[in-house]
Design goal:
9-stranded mixed sheet; about 35% helix; about 475 residues
Length: about 475
Amino acid sequence: MIPVTSFAGKTVAVFGLGGSGLASCHALKAGGAEVVAADDSAENVAKAAQAGFITADLRNVSWANFAALVLAPGVPLTHPVPHWSVLKAREAGVEVIGDIELFCRERRRHAPNAPFVAITGTNGKSTTTALIAHLTKVAGYDTQMGGNIGTAILSLEPPRMGRVHVIEMSSYQIDLTPSLDPSVGILLNVSEDHIDRHGTLAHYAAVKERLVAGVQAGGTSIVGVDDGYCRDIADRLDRAGKNVVRISVKNPLASGIYFEHGNIVRASGGARSEVAALGGIGSLRGLHNAQNAACAAAAVLAMGISQDVLQNGLRSFPGLAHRMEQVGRRGNVLFVNDSKGTNADATAHALSSFADIFWIAGGKPKAGGITSLTRFFPRIRKAYLIGEAAEEFSGTLGTVAHEISQTLDVAVEHAARDAEASGLADAVVLLSPACASYDQYRNFEIRGAKFRELVQALPGVKPVV
């Protein structure tokens, strides 16, 4: 745990008592603050009370003594409308912050030069976060990984030299971290997502920009420049005097790090050198993973980690659960769990990585459906559609062979049967839903775990080595 000493002797309201909210309560109390905990869920309030915290309905208390409102990232800050607790805080002149802001303040107070790598982007941030954490562990760092990837940041060990915090950040978390100042900041990409929470794509991009714009003096801002928003962001950072490393997997760069012929290449001052090879690394298959790896390479090189350690770490990276995760093989059929592919852009990366796909898709649909994926339809041998989106996706697929399986267990059984019967040398049964999970599963992790369980229960399936 990281005790939050910056509010010692003060009273702090915490709204949103899920994992990160409850961790914030414990960290604030450990640092000497008095906590008043609240949530719209009576069950969550009861859990906080059982843990020994004062609880209250913040609509019916005086805000005069609150030093801050610590808001869970899932609670709307601005769009579609600010949550009532945010309006109460603003009316009382109380700052609204999140748990990562509390971490940043503790780091500045106690270990301002401790390495802190923050990662954001519309797609790929979890894989990049896990890969950087793996690389820093291989390099001998005491590595603390958390944030949006799963472990609340304040549940980690405190910042100190020799210990690196590798933190995935969603746009919601960045919004609640006004003094965000990592030593290395990474912005992978920007594409349309979470517009319901940010109003416009331009505002969403501006929130993402804050992560790399806030990098501390002497730090490094790493920006993927394969989309227009990020190219403009990199140019603005340059003009602001930041140390910017541009990343591309589409074009060579005169200065920066790019991907070419299976290798990660660094260019500077007219010279180029290969820093790592990705060929044959199954956990980093596909152009999207080349971008993740290139950004991770830039981060660890900025930290002074050697190219030999980088290459060894890339080769030993096991991959991220639920993101292009190879969960089994039966004969010539590979089973891939990409449950984290919850929108069309994410699924495009998975579809682009294989040639003969038996595709399991569907769930709770998002705006735009799968119309943007039509260029990959020739790779699909058959699709198996599940959940609420099945009828909509069926209409989009048109003449592409498909069936409405409705449930994941039926889809896995039928896809495995058809892939094996196809006789294709490299058939892939791919779960990449292009949808949220909420119609049938509480989250994508549960959906992915169910897929893994179903696959591994099939006769003759063996682990991928």
